[in-house]
UniProtKB/TrEMBL annotation:
Organism of origin: Flavobacterium zhoui
Cofactor: [4Fe-4S] cluster
UniProt record similarity statement: Belongs to the PAPS reductase family. CysH subfamily.
SUPFAM superfamilies xref list: Adenine nucleotide alpha hydrolases-like (SSF52402)
Pathway given in the UniProt record: Sulfur metabolism; hydrogen sulfide biosynthesis; sulfite from sulfate
Catalytic-site annotation from UniProt: C228
Name of the molecule in the record: Adenosine 5'-phosphosulfate reductase
UniProt enzyme class: oxidoreductase
Pfam families: PAPS_reduct
Cofactor mode of binding and number, as noted: Binds 1 [4Fe-4S] cluster per subunit.
């Protein structure tokens, strides 16, 4: 069923621009289309596109409680500029309290298992709740962000969350993303100008050095696949 539906979506939107595809989805799946933003460059482009056409797409963000102040700054600038509500999803307080009481505030540095536990509590569980009952999940994923995202498709079924994902910027380069931001005066995180390419929680993100992989600044002390569980590929 999901494969047939994805093929249908690909056929119907084959000659559409991103804006036209977003409008089509918003109309086809009324009140069932959501966009998750972490206020990174890609997400800011998509927010601008949604706001430009005033599309009825719910934008939400996951506030893990460990974000950079610069992330909150661009969050604030975004809602001021586009006058569009952004829903905020928090982790369950009891789960965070138990984690810190039993393992301390920096347990994620001690093992991949601990880090994934923290990511699950602060990100995956709130995302699961935010996606529930919806049919289309728009993301800012790009193929060149990491090796395990090279085989992503424009539309794909996410079995873990039981939802169809739309990755509108899949084939965009970072240069194309930055050009759109510059040309359209889109608010962006000040950390991008300081060498931060992929920005997550403050204790788990550092600036990249020249020549490093795009995801190198995330969980830099690990040799894992550099994913937190939000995206299974």
């Amino acid at each position: 069923m999901s494969a047939t539906l994805i093929n249908t979506l690909l056929e119907k939107t084959a000659n559409f621009s991103i804006e036209e595809t977003l409008a089509f989805l918003a109309n086809e799946y009324k009140d069932k289309v959501v966009f998750s933003s972490s206020f990174g460059q890609e997400d800011q482009v998509i927010t601008a596109l949604i706001a430009k056409s005033n599309l009825p797409i719910t934008i939400f963000t996951l506030d893990t409680g460990r974000l950079f102040q610069e992330t909150y700054d661009v969050f604030h600038k975004t809602i001021k500029k586009y006058k569009k509500e952004i829903k905020v999803c928090f982790p369950e307080a009891t789960a965070v309290e138990n984690l810190l009481q039993t393992k301390g505030p920096n347990s994620f540095y001690e093992s991949v298992e601990n880090r994934k536990e923290c990511c699950f509590i602060r990100k995956v569980a709130p995302l699961t709740k935010a996606l529930k009952g919806n049919e289309i999940w728009i993301t800012g994923l790009r193929a060149e962000q990491s090796e395990n995202r090279n085989d992503l498709d424009l539309f794909e079924y996410d079995a873990h969350f039981d939802i169809i994902k739309f990755n509108p910027l899949l084939k965009w380069t970072l240069e194309e993303v930055q050009k759109y931001i510059d040309d359209n005066n889109v608010p962006q995180n000040a950390l991008h100008k300081q060498g931060f390419v992929s920005i997550g929680c403050a204790p788990c993100t550092r600036a990249n050095t020249p020549g490093e992989d795009i995801r190198a600044g995330r969980w830099w002390w690990e040799s894992s696949h550099k994913e937190c569980g939000l995206h299974q590929k």
